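Q&A log
Question type: sequence-to-structure
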Amino acid sequence: MSDLPPTGQPGSARDIAALLTLERLRRRISGLFDSGRLSNAQIILLLMVALGGLMIANFSQRIVQGQRKVAEQRQLEAEILALQAEQRALQAAKSYYSAPGYVEIWAHSDGKMVMGGETLIVPVYPSAEPQDSVATDEAPQPGTRTSPHTLPPWQVWWSLFFDTPPPTR
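Response status: OK
Response body:
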């Protein structure tokens, strides 16, 4: 009865109604445990089942995360192996291309360079334009070549750089 706030008048209808409401509430709460609905052992069992369910869910989530990490680790290891193989190939190519023998071979074939005592021969291709068989009376213009088998310098350079006949005008 001391739990009720004072109303100003002892034994008033309001106090009695509040006491009756509290008594009914106490009986309902105690009825849950006393009437056989749920015992203390049952409450503990329910808590253990709920806790076990949470633990199982957490454990399965960790297993899934672990499997993802293992798959990612395998993928990264495969990528590392591929990159290491590429690195070895690039190092082998670097050592091959920086070797003095390769440099000398390249200088002779592609670089068109010669060593002391050698002579460089550059083939000159005949032009693709048909030659007129009739001689003209016109005098050759300055800067042009009179030999029928020589090309202008730009066509020679074109042939050297692109390995194709020069385009016609």
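Response note: The chain has a mean pLDDT of 79.
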